Amino acid sequence: MSEPTEPRPQTSGQWAVRWHGIVLAAALVGSVPLFHLVWHGVLGREQPPIRSRGQTPAPALSWDAARDGSWMLAEEKHLREQSPIVWWLRSSWNELRYRLDVPHSDEVHFGRGDWLFLAPTVAPDRAGFEAATANRRRFLGEVRDRVRAAGAELFVMVVPDKARVYPEFAFADGRMPAAKAPIYGMLLADLAALDIATVDLAAAMAAARSAAPDQELYFRRDTHWRPMGALTAGRAAAAAIEAGPLGARLSPRRNLVLAGSESVRLIGDLSAMLGIGTVEAPDQPGRRTVPMSFLAERLAETRDYYGVSLLEDGRLLPMGGTDADAEVLVMGTSFSEENGMKALALSLGRPVRLIFVYGADGLGPVRAGMREMATGTRAKVVVWELVERGFLEAGWRDPRL
Question: Mean pLDDT in the chain?
Answer without folding.
Answer: 88
